[in-house]
Amino acid sequence: MDPHTPVTSPTAAAGQIALAEVEALLQRPLLDLVFEAAGVHRQHHDPGRVQCSQLLSIKTGGCPEDCGYCSQSAHHETALAREPLMSVDQVLAAAAAARQNGAERFCMGAAWRAVPKGEPFERVLAMVRGVKELGMEACVTLGMLDEEQAAQLREAGLDYYNHNLDTGRSHYRNVVTTRSYDDRLATIANVRKAGVKVCCGGILGLGERRQGRAELLHELANLDPPPESLPINTLVQVEGTPMAGSEELDWTELVRTVAAARVLMPTTAIRLSAGRTDLDEATQAMCFLAGANSIFVGDELLTTPNPEPATDAALLRKLSLLPVAHAPSE
Ligand code: SAM
Ligand code: DTB
Ligand code: SF4
Fold this sequence. Notes:
The chain is 38% helix and 14% strand. It has 330 residues and is α/β, with parallel strands linked by helices. Bound molecules: S-adenosylmethionine, 6-(5-methyl-2-OXO-imidazolidin-4-yl)-hexanoic acid and iron/sulfur cluster.
């Protein structure tokens, strides 16, 4: 068959998607795939808008998990200094500054295996309430949580919980050994049950093959419903972590993955996440064309650099992309 022959692409809206269908999508000629994804994107989203979130690491380093990519794992010797849980005032000052810089969602990350009980969790709940009072959307990423904790976060006003599957099921054991794929899925189910929106994606460039990326997209597209927000990170190589030195991902594989995610999950917000400092403008533009419509802004992610705000502002201007307006306070 001519590789450019139009095909009927699978979409999560139509129910369960087979792994073979995702593999076929990822094998399509790149430009055909991007062309289709751009069409799907324009049917479901405003192609002139980009959702902007800002991150803050509220508790840094010393994490008991052994995620092979992470600067914050206590299992690896990295240059990162540990920092205890920040105060509510410190966090809200950072959130207010982020809002001033144009972020409409504030995402707070903690290097925990699981959400702790007691005062630290109460403090996080106060941070969520405070971010909401600033009129911003609130997102947290705190590791595993149970149903009751998810309900408390919802009660505090939390909009999104970020919990990534990172990679496909078969490659997962090469990346993390201290928790299972099903542990991740159980937390995501608890978040859903509480009525909090799910932000769930992965990292490309962890030494996986295209097959591994197909498996990841297959898992994500078959979540019921698929995640409302899907971060696609490319590995930020951190010296001292086992994944540092992994083979660099070719830019076309990133674009291909973004485009396939857009076709499979038409209504999901796809975030071009970690790794943008290593992407040239043309690659980022291609990702936006292929369906990415969300980024992290601010010059730092959690512990690693992000493009300077002026650099991002210039890129968005060149592409005539506007940030999504601030959501009104609830
Ligand atoms: N401890 C919590 C957890 O793992 O769910 C929350 C914080 S963790 C740093 C949030 C996510 O950041 C991870 O799930 C991973 O996908 C991503 N991440 C961490 N280090 C990264 C790196 N070096 N490059 C790209 N993405 C990374
Ligand atoms: C996600 O998928 N990417 C963000 C957010 N969720 C929490 C984090 C990226 C972290 C990159 C490495 C660092 O800065 O520590
Ligand atoms: Fe801990 Fe999260 Fe880093 Fe894994 S990714 S080591 S759970 S902070």
